[in-house]
Design brief:
Elements: E1 11-15, E2 21-25, E3 50-55, H1 62-65, E4 71-72, E5 92-96, H2 108-118, E6 122-123, E7 126-127, H3 132-140, E8 149-152, H4 163-166, E9 170-172, E10 175-176, H5 183-191, H6 203-211, H7 221-228, H8 233-253, H9 284-299, E11 305-309, H10 330-335, H11 346-367, E12 370-371, E13 374-375, E14 380-385, E15 401-404, E16 415-418, H12 425-434
Parallel strand pairs: 3-11, 3-14, 5-16, 8-11
Antiparallel strand pairs: 1-2, 4-16, 5-15, 6-7, 9-10, 12-13, 14-15
Helix pairs in contact: 5-9, 8-9, 9-11
Length: 458
């Protein structure tokens, strides 16, 4: 029998040639859990569900987003815009019928974003309340290296000064958590103690940077060999798979320039395939890199709370890589300018379908990542939403809301529930209660609610 006594905070440690410390976090192993797999062996504390806000800008086509039938299992079917998630249907709880009662005419995107994430109106350019991810972080993040992590795929900018346009994560008024859009910077933060990537500004610095190409994994081999002697066969196998996945990310990032240029640490004879999105187009390679890094961060509990901003509210993004006819501003030209109704804007549909394929990649990665006795998607609640319902005219009804994952058994999944005219803030209160918070109300003013969505939580 293996020794059930390894701390959840155990990491592999090493040192790069530059003198930078390296820490490789570990996934949740059997040796870290009690016999039933429900609590940490050393502290006896229950294993907490993980939380993600997954946000996409510019809304959906409500007529193609909402499933036609409600119910569970075979009683309902995915809508056309949710069809990219077909393989994950058993993990989905679709919530339809909700209204964002905080949307204000003339500032629909910023007030819509604030309503969907904070349940509160704006005060000038500032939100009035913390966002749901930070409310959850207050309850479940103690002991995690990062209280929360915010990443994004495209920094395509919106027009407007409101804080709720530039992030969906807020600690409170005038306290934004801005997303990191550079995969290399996220990698450094997770595995190199937050060390920023140095600039190539001198011969001595350049020589040191050349040595950074030595793998962070190579630097922790001795520590890893020592740990493996304490593990059972299943945990040894999981450690090996975990380190192989980090190696793959590291090798990919070696060909991805950070920002607009490269340093000697990133130069490669292989042409770069992607980097921080400098063209406002949310390229698939950047999404893939952020998906893998996010899954590692959650699996290793570098954080228990993540905000994944696929695109910002009202983002002026160009999905030109999808088709020749998509080389237009998705917000201004396509959403607002194209003819059609809530079921028939073909170019809008093409953009939303691409967004959902990227969401599918994220959720699939969670499902395929072991975590304790199950997987990350079983152990997580992913709240998917946007800053408007139908972007063409900024509708506030039939707001896109999707819960993905099982939250450690607190969600059934494979359901579509319709709540016609109900307050969107009820979704936020439901999230808070699913995540174990002892709260009975949420939101401010028109966003204030005192009951959750009935029947959603197990």
């Amino acid at each position: 029998m293996t020794n059930k006594g390894l701390s959840r905070r155990t990491v592999l440690r090493g040192m790069l040639a530059t003198g930078a410390a390296v820490t490789i976090p570990l996934p949740l192993l059997e040796i870290m859990l009690n016999e039933s797999g429900t609590a940490h062996a050393q502290t006896k504390t229950p294993v907490s569900p993980l939380y993600v806000t997954w946000f996409f800008g510019n809304g959906s086509l409500p007529g193609r987003w909402k499933p036609t039938r409600t119910g569970s299992g075979q009683a309902w079917e995915l809508s056309p815009q949710l069809e990219p998630l077909a393989d994950l249907k058993s993990y989905l709880t679709v919530i339809s019928g909700l209204e964002n009662k905080l949307v204000v005419s003339g500032v629909e995107h910023p007030t819509g974003s604030a309503g969907a994430t904070t349940g509160a109106p704006l005060s000038g350019n500032a939100v009035r309340a913390p966002s749901i991810d930070q409310v959850v972080a207050n309850a479940i993040s103690e002991g995690a290296p990062y209280r929360s992590l915010e990443v994004g795929v495209t920094p395509a900018t919106p027009n407007g000064p409101q804080d709720s346009l530039h992030t969906v994560s807020h600690r409170g008024p005038n306290s934004r958590n801005n997303a990191e859009f550079d995969p290399k910077a996220v990698f450094n933060r997770l595995f190199m103690g937050g060390l920023p990537e140095p600039s190539d500004d001198g011969a001595d610095r350049a020589a040191k940077l050349a040595n950074v190409r030595k793998s962070v994994l190579d630097s922790v081999q001795q520590d890893g060999a020592s740990l493996k002697q304490r593990l059972g066969a299943a945990d040894r196998h999981r450690i090996e798979e975990h380190l192989e996945s980090i190696r793959a990310i590291e090798q990919r990032l070696d060909t991805m320039p950070s920002g607009g240029g490269t340093t000697s640490a990133c130069k490669s004879p292989t042409a770069p395939t992607a980097g921080k999105d400098a063209q406002s187009e949310a390229p698939p390679a950047v999404n893939s890199a952020m998906v893998e890094l996010s899954a590692l961060a959650l699996a290793c509990e570098r954080t228990r709370v993540l905000s994944f901003m696929f695109s910002l509210p009202a983002a002026h993004v160009y999905y030109r890589h999808l088709a020749q006819d998509m080389n237009d501003d998705f917000h201004d030209t396509i959403c607002h300018g194209d003819a059609g109704d809530q079921s028939s804007q073909p170019r809008v549909d093409k953009g939303v379908m691409y967004t959902m394929r990227c969401l599918n990649e994220f959720l699939t990665k969670l499902k395929n990542t072991p975590h304790g006795s199950s997987n990350l998607l079983d152990s997580s609640l992913v709240y998917v939403t946007s800053d408007t319902a139908w972007g063409k005219v900024h509708t506030r009804t039939e707001w896109p809301v999707l819960f993905a994952g099982k939250a450690g058994g607190r969600l059934r999944g494979d359901e579509h529930r319709n709540f016609p005219g109900d307050n969107l803030s009820k979704a936020l209160l439901t999230v808070a209660q699913i995540m174990g918070l002892n709260v009975t109300e949420f939101g401010i003013d028109a966003g204030r609610v005192t009951s959750p969505l009935a029947g959603v939580q197990v």
